[in-house]
Structure formats: C-alpha cells, structure tokens
Design goal:
Elements (H helix, E strand, L loop, with lengths): L3 E8 L10 H16 L6 E5 L3 H5 L4 H8 L7 E4 L5 H14 L5 E9 L6 H6 L14 H16 L3 H15 L13 H6 L2 E3 L2 E2 L8 E10 H7 L3 E11 L14 H13 L9 E3 L5 H10 L8 H6 L16 H5 L3 H17 L12 E8 L4 E10 L1
Parallel strand pairs: 2-3, 2-4, 9-10
Antiparallel strand pairs: 1-7, 1-8, 4-7, 5-6, 8-11, 10-11
Helix pairs in contact: 4-14, 7-11
The structure holds coenzyme A (COA).
Length: 383
C-alpha cells in the first residue's frame, strides 16, 4: 500500500441555506478544495450523501455532481452509510490512492435537509424499518434509550449530558462555518424543550444544509504540491447490529471500539498520543459513549471527564474543537468529511481561535445511525 495524503480542503458554511441547492453546495466545497490543493485535475471522485432522493428528490448524484463540477467523464461514485457517508467517502478515496489506482482523488459529502422534506421520516430510514421505525421510534428516541442505559449503569447525570452541549457551543462560537455560533448555559440546555426523555432540544444536533470536500493524493503528488503535508496514517471501518435490541449492552457502541482498535494498530499509535479528536456528537450522549469507546477516558467516566473540562479547548484532551455536530451542524452526508477538515486545519496550524497548540496527531470518528456503522481516520501533520 502507498502512503496517502490530504493536500486540499473546502467546505461551505453549515446552516439553513435557502439560496443554495444540493449541487451549488457540493460544487462550492469542491472548488474550494481543488483551489486549496492547487491541483489542475482530479482522476475520480466519491460523494457521501445519506439520502438526496428523500431530501430533495434527486438520485444518481455522483454523475450529476461530476458534471456540475466540470469533470464529466471521470469515475464518480455515490457512497451511502447514513450519517457516516462523508467519512466513508474519504476512506474510498484513501483506498483508491493507497492501491495505486489513482494519484489525485476528490472525496466529499453533501446534504440538503431544509428543502421541505419530512426530515424525521428520512432520517429514520437509517434505523431498522421493521423493528424500530415501524413502531414509531426515531433517532432522538434511540439515543434517549442509550442515554437511559448509561445513566442507569454508570450514574451519568442529566447535568453531565448538558455539559457536552455547553462545551461544543463554546467551541462553535469560534467557528465561522458553524450553524449556531452562540454560547449556551447548562441551565438553558436543562430547560430546553423535551424531545425524547432525557434528551432535550439542546442535546440534539440540528437539521442542516452543507457540503465538505478534500483532495486526497499520493506522496509524490503531495511532495510536489508544496502544500502543508497531512498524512492519512489510518483509515478503518466497522459495523454493528443495526437495531439496538440486538446489542448486548445499550450503554456501549461496539462499532466504534472495533474501528478504533484497527485504526490505532494501523497508525501504530494509542489514544494518549492523539492531540485532538473530532467525534460524532449527534446527541450529547453519543459524545460520552464514543470517548469511552475510543479509550480517551475510562468506561463510565466520560460524564465526569467532560464536567471537569478535560475535553474542552485548552483541556488535556480537546474534543470537537469545530463545535461538533451540536453547534457546527449536521448535514448528515457531509459531516464525516467536515470532521476530517477540522483535523487537517488543526494539524496545519490553520484553526485560528480554535487552534490546539502543537497539534501533530488527530483522530476523526464518524458513525451511521445509532452506531450501525463507524469510520475512523487518524491523521498526522508532517512539518
Ligand atoms: N440545537 C439548537 N437549536 C435548535 C436545534 C438544535 N438541535 N434545532 C432547532 N433549533 C432551534 C431553531 O433554530 C429554532 O430557533 P428559532 O425559533 O430561534 O428560529 C428553534 O430551535 C425551533 O426550531 P425547529 O426547527 O422548529 O425545531 P424542531 O422541533 O423542528 O427540530 C429537533 C428540533 C431536535 C427535533 C431537530 O433538530 C432534530 O430532529 N434533530 C436531530 C437530527 C438527527 O436525528 N440527526 C441524525 C442523528 S443520528
């Protein structure tokens, strides 16, 4: 396998973008990435999107988007794994470059969720239709069950869940691309509208439009480009039972542990070596369980760790410096790619007010649905 690098990144602002269509968003992010990489062509592209068909009535999007990007003729592939689509699109690009098939690949993600579709219905199609969605449970409900199990088993408190949202909004305030650039207090979270007990409005990631793209390339191309070098040290992927009822322990997310084990092994590294993490906080409880599965904190101790400020910017282990899905927004197909972009910017020293001092190694963890799929990338900034 060849070494693989990221030399260009681009993303749109995340939010309710009424004046931009799905194709506008993807083209905007992709052109930024191409310009940022300073390349004059790409050999193929991967597009992560959860359900353009249900959100905007458009399928066959890889072909459409290669056309609108001015690259008609190249191989273009749509990648779907619910909210993990954008991360897995990058992994497909990684595999194509590592294998030697191509030298320069564009990978990204897009979702246009605010154009009038029944968003809750569309999102729920990523759960088990026969055993979950049919009975009326949607994603806030599924994560509420995970939260209850974690609270029961480890004594995690309602206040600790709120602290995740408070921290991520504090980070998002420093991110010009974030959907919600506002600070919130623990009290505001605790008093926000109940969505699925114990999860309230401010425990949830929002409904978002947006796109993100990266340029992935071989070592040769990276070194000749003159761009800052960020190496993809590992790219791993795992699955789990789709439906919660099939899992042994509702307070865990085994797909994350599986992907993490492989990523740490392939990168020849361990959690303590990583300087900055982007994790999939689609609901506050998700961030708590994920940081346990990644080995950042001991199992059952994530609530206390967040409350102690360990995972804040300036803390020992900064998590979700971008604002996470909670504050930056969650255009489901684009999220995984945007997480990787935050890590690249951190490793390049380009993260502005969100910069983690001397960041050299970063990890991005992206998952689909309630953890039925997970993809993890470990990246290294080479000075
Ligand atoms: N965080 C912060 N503010 C939010 C928000 C969120 N997650 N969701 C909505 N808001 C704000 C809106 O901006 C709006 O503010 P305004 O009145 O000042 O304009 C207000 O809250 C009401 O918004 P509305 O769009 O009516 O909310 P809603 O009740 O339709 O949707 C949720 C709220 C939580 C149900 C929705 O955001 C949701 O489904 N989130 C989860 C998405 C999801 O499941 N993703 C996949 C994960 S696996």
């Amino acid at each position: 396998m060849r070494d693989v690098y990221i030399i260009g990144v681009g993303m749109t602002k995340f939010g309710e973008l009424w004046d931009k269509s799905l194709r506008d968003l993807f083209v905007e992010a992709s052109l930024q990435a191409i310009e940022n990489a300073d390349v004059d062509h790409i050999q193929s592209m991967y597009v992560g999107a959860m359900s353009a068909g249900l959100f905007v009535g458009q399928e066959h999007i890889a072909s459409l988007l290669s056309d609108y990007l001015g690259n008609e003729g190249i191989p273009a592939t749509h990648v779907e794994s619910a909210c993990a689509s954008g991360g897995i699109a990058v992994r497909q690009g990684y595999i194509e470059v590592a294998s030697g098939i191509s030298d320069i690949v564009l990978a990204g993600g897009v979702e246009k969720m605010n154009d009038g579709a029944d968003v809750t219905f569309a999102l729920a199609t990523a759960s088990d239709q026969e055993y979950e969605a049919f009975h009326g449970v949607t994603f806030p409900g599924l994560y509420a069950m995970i939260a209850r199990a974690h609270m029961e088993k480890y004594g995690t408190t309602r206040e600790q869940l709120a602290e995740v949202a408070v921290k991520n909004h504090e980070h998002g305030l420093k991110n010009p691309n974030a959907q919600f650039q506002m600070a919130i207090s623990r009290d505001t979270v605790m008093k926000s509208t109940m969505v699925a007990d114990p999860l309230r409005l401010l425990d949830c990631s929002p409904v978002t439009d947006g796109a993100a793209a990266v340029i992935i390339c071989s070592e040769d191309v990276a070194k000749k480009s003159g761009r800052p070098l960020v190496k993809l040290r590992a790219s791993s992927q795992a699955t789990d039972y789709l439906a919660l009822h099939s899992r042994k322990d509702l307070a865990s997310l085994p797909s994350v542990a599986r992907a993490a084990k492989k990523a740490y092994k392939d990168a020849d590294t361990k959690p303590e070596d990583i300087d900055v993490f982007e994790v999939h906080d689609c609901f506050t409880i998700a961030e708590l369980v994920v940081i346990e599965e990644l080995g950042i904190v001991e199992r059952g101790k994530s609530g206390a760790a967040v409350e102690a400020g360990i995972t804040r910017l300036g803390g020992k282990i900064p998590v979700n410096t971008s604002g996470g899905l909670k504050s930056k927004g969650h255009p489901v197909g684009a999220t995984g790619t945007a997480q990787i972009i935050e890590i690249v910017e951190q490793l390049r020293g380009d993260a502005g007010d969100r910069q983690v001092t001397d960041a050299r190694l970063g990890l991005a963890q992206n998952m689909g649905g309630s953890g039925g799929s997970c993809v993890i990338h470990i990246l290294e900034g080479i000075s």
